[in-house]
């Protein structure tokens, strides 16, 4: 039996329902998976298909289907690889009821992120801050909207991954200064590096090492990066998955220690 969270198996299962039933589109947990959102949505691993219809027509009632009704503006239902699905921004709002503020922020950062055209085949973000704010203003009173507003306020442009967003939030929640995110930094003549998170005033760079950093080629690249930072007088703090355990307290402790070494004073505006 295919994994319920596998988007490649989801579209063929949903398509018949959107073709046979008028005004029907994949939504909620199903749209979350189809858009390949990062983060965690409770219930997204369940086998139910989530289908929405406008509140002017009957809710869909089929075995294995969780029907939803709501008000939809014209741009909130889109064609995604031949399948009708709620837009990315509308999906973010629809899922807010079940998601934590942190996970909503992870998705918001993903939507706002400016892509790297050479690698991703697109030049613009999936959404702007104005797009997200407009969605919230359209649907005032929607369950979860208060969490979504807080998440939008905490969202930033610059995180390249969900772990980077979670790390940033943990640092800020612990009272550390807000870091710069993936900002190109000149370290010397012709040497420019882009740390995941950074504190230029203290010359502290924070790098999140995902699974790919254990590969031999990447290890060599990481060493070269660290040498470039060291020559420029920067201190590099490497964070891995294990540092994110226990509410990221080990990660916070490492970054706080580096900032204190470099002269940061708690309570000082940075």
What does this structure look like?
A four-stranded mixed β-sheet has the order 6-9-10-11, sandwiched between helices. The protein has a three-stranded mixed β-sheet with strand order 1-2-3. It has a two-stranded antiparallel ribbon with strand order 4-5. Helix 2 crosses helix 3 (88-94). Strand 9 and strand 10 (204-208) form a beta hairpin. It has helices at residues 7-20, 28-34, 88-94, 101-112, 117-120, 129-138, 145-154, 162-173, 216-231, 245-261, and strands spanning 25-26, 49-54, 65-70, 77-80, 83-86, 180-181, 185-188, 191-193, 197-199, 204-208, 235-239. It is an alpha+beta fold and 270 residues long.
Looking at this protein, list some descriptive labels.
3-stranded mixed β-sheet; alpha+beta; 4-stranded mixed β-sheet; Endonuclease, Chain A; 270 residues
Count the E strands. 11
| N-C termini distance | 53 Å
Strand order of the largest sheet: 6-9-10-11
* Unreliable stretches: none
């Amino acid at each position: 039996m295919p994994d319920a969270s596998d988007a490649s198996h989801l579209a063929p299962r949903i398509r018949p329902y959107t073709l046979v039933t008028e005004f029907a589109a994949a939504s909620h947990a199903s749209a979350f998976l189809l858009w390949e959102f990062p983060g965690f949505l409770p219930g997204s691993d369940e086998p139910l298909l989530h289908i929405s219809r406008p509140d002017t027509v009957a809710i869909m009632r089929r075995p294995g289907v969780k029907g939803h009704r709501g008000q939809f503006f014209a741009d909130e239902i889109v064609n995604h690889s031949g399948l009708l699905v709620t837009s990315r921004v509308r999906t973010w709002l629809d899922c807010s009821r079940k998601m934590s503020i942190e996970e909503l922020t992870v998705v918001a950062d993903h939507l706002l992120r400016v892509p790297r055209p050479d690698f991703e085949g697109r030049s613009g973000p999936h959404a702007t801050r104005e797009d997200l704010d407009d969605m919230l203003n359209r649907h005032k009173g929607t369950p979860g909207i208060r969490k979504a507003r807080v998440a939008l306020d905490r969202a930033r442009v610059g995180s390249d991954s969900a772990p980077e967003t979670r790390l940033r939030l943990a640092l800020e929640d612990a009272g550390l200064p807000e870091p710069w995110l993936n900002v190109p930094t000149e370290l010397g003549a012709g040497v420019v590096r882009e740390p995941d998170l950074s504190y230029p005033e203290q010359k502290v760079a924070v790098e999140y090492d995902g699974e790919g950093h254990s590969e031999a080629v990447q290890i060599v690249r990481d060493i070269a990066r660290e040498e470039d930072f060291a020559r420029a007088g920067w201190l590099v703090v490497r964070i891995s998955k294990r540092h994110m355990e226990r509410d990221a307290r080990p990660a916070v402790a490492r970054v706080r220690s580096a900032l204190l070494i470099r002269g940061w004073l708690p309570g000082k505006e940075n």
